[in-house]
Amino acid sequence: MLTDVDLPAPGLLWTRWATLSATHVALGRTGSWSIDDHGAGRDLPDGSWARFALLDGRRAVLYGDHHEHSAAGRDDPPADPLTGAPDWLPWATLAPLAERDRLGFVIWHESGRWSRVRYRDGWSDGMTDLVGPVLTGEGALIALTRFGPRPVAERLLAAAVRAELSAMHFTDLLIDPAPDQLAAAMATATRGGLVPGSAAPRIEPGRRPPMRRVRRLSQGEHDRLVWAAMQDSPELSRPTPPTTTELDTLVGWLQDRAPHADGRCSLLAYSDATSFSAQPGDRPPADRPDEERYAAFRRLTELVRALRRAESDPRYGRWLFLRIETSAAGVQVERRYDSWPPWWHDDGVSGPWRTNLQEEMDARLPRYRPSWVTLLDPEVAYRPL
Questions:
Q1: DSSP string, 324-350
Q2: Are 46 and 65 in the same domain?
Q3: Which end of the chain, N or C, is surrounded by fewer C-beta atoms within 10 Å?
Q4: Are residues 35 and 169 located together in one domain of the fold?
Q5: Distance (Å, whole) CA 200 – CA 379
Q6: What is the dihedral of CA 79, 84, 87, 92, to 10 degrees?
Q7: Which run of H or E residues covers position 98?
Q8: CB 334: neighbour CB atoms within 10 A?
Q9: Stretch 58-77: mean pLDDT, rounded?
Q10: How many alpha carbons fall within 13 Å on the CB side of residue 281?
């Protein structure tokens, strides 16, 4: 289902974008706002980005990806940003981005209206965070007045709208722009159609592919599918690891940290090659008032990782979950290589990363890989369309 989007006319949006791009070039700040032969660009240091392109007539497309907002891969269920999109979009560019979860929004202009796929209520795609300064005239002026007086910024923007921009408009706004940067700014303005006799670049209409991969499971849904299978999985038969000094050291540390000073202490932990987490058991290790904050957790992480390395086996692999219950005179140890144990709380949000689990499974012989390993394949989240 599609919905209308309230955006300025493509020509006005383009003029503001090109004006900011040329101004940034005049300041020597290339990359954030840009213009090239394929359209306009916006790139942020965190990896978020947007692209805007004009086509024939009054058709246009605005697309991008915000690193914190994407209904395509994070919403449950995922929203395919290309559902209902017209045939003339640049599909050769958009479809590969969507398959790699790098396309958070696509908005197109046709027949006097902007449209996009409808998201779940309350969901934001991050588009306004990315290109907010060009969505209104006031926003563009505020962005320009960071570099000079408002009346001068108003004259610069008005000249850009009339396609009458000159070098004087930049020298009036900016303090002593370098000659080479001023020349580069005028080249950008020319490429953007802001000077007399120039025209904005336009891309050719695209063609919808006969088939493409569409995400049917969000990242969260894919995670929960794997975690549910782990909870239903039995443990495969393998020998118990031999006693090691690393186990003795960890047990001694837990007994010394017994919350009631009676040797009774509980450890519930998850670990893989790159991550570690712990949950409180009945008698979690006690902190000490004279120690640095998180010192006990850091030491616990070191001890558990050392034990995991010592007990690893190139055939059987390494355990993922560990439970230890100590007393003054003994210890009980439970290891889970293949399953999510009932004593490890599942909040439905946090759990083992699929990429980490895949690395663990790849390090084992095939016969010691549980059945849920097939669910780690990224293709599980997609369907052909």
A1: EEE-SS-EEEEEESSS--TTS---SS-
A2: yes
A3: N
A4: yes
A5: 40
A6: 10
A7: helix 91-99
A8: 14
A9: 79
A10: 23
Whether 353 and 243 share a structural domain? yes
Structure-token pair, residue 62 = 């605005």
Residues 151 and 191 both lie in one domain: yes
| Two tokens, residue 283 | 């008698």
The number of distinct structural domains making up the chain is: 2
| Bridge partner residues of 382 (DSSP) | 215
Residues 42, 32 contacting (CB under 8 angstroms): yes
Query: Count of CB atoms within 10 A of residue 66's CB?
Result: 21
Count CA atoms within 13 Å of residue 141 on its CB side: 12
Handedness of CA 73, 78, 79, 82 (dihedral sign): positive
**Of 212, 245, 264, which closes a domain?**
212
Which of 212, 229, 256 is where one domain is finished?
A: 212
Asked if 160 and 294 sit in the same domain, the reply is no
Is the pLDDT at 383 greater than 80? The verdict is: no
Spatial contact of 334 and 341, defined as CB atoms under 8 Å apart: yes
Tokens of 346: 């599942």
Q: What's this model's pTM, rounded to 2 decimal places?
A: 0.76
192-204: pLDDT as tens digits = 999 999 999 999 9
Q: Which distant-in-sequence residues (6+ apart) come within 8 Å of 258 by Cβ? A: 264, 265, 283, 285, 286, 326
Distance CA 137, CA 157 (A): 9
Range of the domain at 265: 219-384
Angle at 281 between CA 280 and CA 285, to 5 degrees: 70
Among candidate residues 169, 176, 197, the one with its CA nearest the CA of residue 23: 169
Are 167 and 308 in the same domain?
Answer: no
